[in-house]
């Protein structure tokens, strides 16, 4: 017979515990925290408080992070790593959480360059994106036929991504999904 290793959890009788709602975070001005370490390559991390998980703006910031730094042709990577060669790497992410989230950009300076140069270059790219916006060419969504796919879906997407080096793949849409079980299989393959 099968035995469960999970402990049996019994819910206590009585009323549901109250749900606590946190007040929105309101930061006043810019906060700079500088940690000086004797390291060969200085690193900068810039973060903004953003809307909570699934709140308006959260999904858009997930997409913005992918488009801004998700490939070799992405604006941050292109400017800092390829064109100016002041960074070894750059990344962006939207860290979504229930009560509040953070949009974070990380960059590691190339030999002979400073954190100040990185911050200035990042600010310039962000200002340009705010002014000009993104073109449709900056956002790539792969649409794949899932009718005869399961775990091999990950290989298809990975192959497409490797074939087009530098592509900022913002997402994948599967059509012709056979049902809930098929959908779970596809989701697991893509995780």
Structural class: alpha+beta
Strand content: 15-25%
- What is the makeup of the main sheet? 3 strands, antiparallel
Shape: globular
Task: State the low-pLDDT regions, or none.
Answer: none
Physical arrangement of strands within the biggest beta sheet? 1-3-2
Cα end-to-end separation: 32 Å
Number of strands: 5
Q: How many helix segments?
A: 5
* SSE run: EHHEEHEHEH
Average pLDDT figure: 81
Rg, Cα atoms, Å: 21 Å
The helical percent reads: 25-40%
Provide a short characterization of the protein structure.
The protein has helices at 58-69, 75-83, 115-132, 153-163, 180-190, and strands at residues 43-50, 87-95, 101-109, 140-145, 169-175.
What order do the helices and strands come in, and which of them pair?
Elements: E1 43-50, H1 58-69, H2 75-83, E2 87-95, E3 101-109, H3 115-132, E4 140-145, H4 153-163, E5 169-175, H5 180-190
Parallel strand pairs: 4-5
Antiparallel strand pairs: 1-3, 2-3
């Amino acid at each position: 017979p099968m035995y469960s290793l999970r402990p049996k959890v019994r819910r206590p009788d009585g009323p549901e515990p109250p749900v606590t709602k946190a007040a929105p975070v309101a930061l006043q001005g810019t906060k700079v925290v500088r940690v000086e370490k004797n390291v060969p390559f200085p690193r900068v991390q810039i973060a903004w408080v953003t809307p909570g998980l699934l709140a308006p703006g959260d999904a858009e910031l997930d997409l913005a992070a992918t488009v801004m730094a998700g490939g070799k042709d992405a604006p941050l990577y292109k400017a800092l790593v390829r064109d100016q060669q002041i960074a070894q790497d750059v990344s962006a992410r939207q860290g979504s959480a229930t009560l509040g989230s953070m949009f974070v950009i990380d960059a590691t300076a190339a030999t002979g360059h400073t954190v100040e140069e990185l911050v200035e270059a990042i600010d310039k790219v962000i200002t340009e994106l705010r002014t000009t916006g993104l073109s449709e060419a900056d956002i790539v969504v792969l649409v794949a036929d899932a009718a005869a796919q399961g775990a091999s879906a990950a290989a298809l997407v990975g192959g497409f991504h490797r074939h087009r080096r530098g592509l900022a793949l913002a997402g994948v849409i599967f059509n012709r999904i056979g049902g809930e079980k098929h959908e779970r299989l596809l989701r697991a393959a893509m995780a």
